[in-house]
Amino acid sequence: MTDFPKIAVIGSGYWGKNLVRNYHQIGALALICDKNEAILGSFREQYPGVDTCMAISDVMKRDDIAGVAIATPAETHYDIAHEALLAEKNVYVEKPLVLHEYQGEALIALAKENNRVLMVGHLLQYHPVFVRLKKLARRGELGRINYIYSNRLNLGKIRREENILWSFAPHDISMILSLAGEAPEYVSATGGYFLHKKIADVTTTHMEFPSGLQAHIFVSWLHPSKEQKLVVVGERKMAVFDDTQPWEDKLLLYEHQINWENNLPVPKKAEAQRMNIEQDEPLKLECLHFLDCISNGQRPATDGSEGLQVLKVLNVAQASMNQGGRKLSFRASPVTRGNYFVHDTAVVDKKSRNWTRY
Fold first, then answer.
1. Is the pTM here over 0.85, yes or no?
2. For a pLDDT cut of 70, what percent of the chain falls above it?
3. What's the fold here for domain 124-281+302-358?
4. 7-116: what fold?
């Protein structure tokens, strides 16, 4: 059996329990940390021999723990990740990386300074179907990509600590940026507020890229059925990644053509082409990737810089929503100066001082 680095999972609730399960199956789980004693008691019965604790400090002082997987509320990500990196632990943190860009930059710098892995849980980057789709796109099999759209819809789970943009869209933003291979030039977003006047239940985000590529993301937790679909439209082929379909139908390619007849575009449809992709659990592959990065010193596919880029898109999209859907320049997005933000629409007096510490 492979001797994996030992991992502590911090936060073992709604999503953290899946990290616990996978790291235990892999043989890397050493410790579960949670503030709920009842949950820990249940895990002690389910996973005999795995240690538990309620204090994060107990995780940090364990010399045998090589890495921590953080699955706590987003507002706690920075403090826990910062403490872990100071304790010279490798860090995996669920999306979003943090809530503020200066925090992300601080974590990236600290990880580099301490020669430690900083990885973000953008799960779909490790989905075998998306991995194949990305390879097809990068080999040029789709031709020039004209536009991408993504729908992530469901009825619930409705949150009150964050809106639907921050809850659902990070995965789609991560996939789209990976396929685009460039940062967007403009971002705009609109939201619908139906259950709470300040928390958006439905959002649509639009991105325009320097190459001419356009993309949009529609997310909602007020939808009658579940939909998780990414559509990539290229000049040569179109691809549909539908994660709600059986494995053999999750990725379909269409070699549709547009022919010109009498100066009019006429579509010529083609049959769907299925891909032969080996089935595996994306979360297990993501966990294994983190362990490989710890062991081999390799850079994660979704490292801190990738997580920061996704965070920047989220921040500009949120700013656009706050301004009624106004199209904003991504390159003039809120910039980091030390440990504070200055937005492109703000005017800062030269005598201003910042007392916020992180």
1. yes
2. 92
3. Dihydrodipicolinate Reductase; domain 2 (3.30.360)
4. Rossmann fold (3.40.50)
